[in-house]
From TrEMBL:
This is Reverse transcriptase domain-containing protein. It comes from Tanacetum coccineum. It holds the Pfam family Retrotrans_gag. Residues 38-106 form the Retrotransposon gag domain. It comes from the Eukaryota. Keywords: Nucleotidyltransferase, RNA-directed DNA polymerase, Transferase. One of its GO terms (molecular function) is RNA-directed DNA polymerase activity.
């Protein structure tokens, strides 16, 4: 796997991950069946669990894998929030401070103010 390809855990924009992966696959001139095997190696955490739980023989090719991946992770697509919305992010019942801070940082990265910085 090319070293510049980051792993994907399900918490970021899936289209960004696909763009980097596809660029690398084309540059490396992998055969299409290799794309599926190599894509699998870019997944960690929640995304790895998702992949491991796909039904056997439910994916026939990279196009199927890409479609299924996007259907599952498209809600992570970047959206730009108004900075005022950040004020409304509250710690959830039972959410640890560490988890809240992680979630707050993730959501604040998507604010208009941060995008324009």
């Amino acid at each position: 796997m090319p070293t510049h390809i980051k792993t994907y855990d399900g918490s970021e924009d899936p289209e960004d991950h696909l763009k980097f992966f596809q660029t690398a696959a084309k540059k490396e001139r992998w055969a299409m069946p290799t794309w599926c095997h190599m894509f699998n190696s870019t997944l960690t955490g929640n995304a790895r669990v998702w992949f491991d739980n796909l039904l056997a023989e439910s994916i026939d090719n990279y196009v199927d894998l890409k479609k299924t991946f996007l259907e599952n992770y498209l809600q992570q697509k970047k959206c730009i929030k108004d900075p005022i919305e950040l004020h409304n992010i509250k710690q959830r019942d039972g959410e640890s401070t560490e988890d809240f801070v992680r979630r707050y940082k993730l959501e604040s990265r998507m604010s208009k103010e941060h995008q324009n910085a």
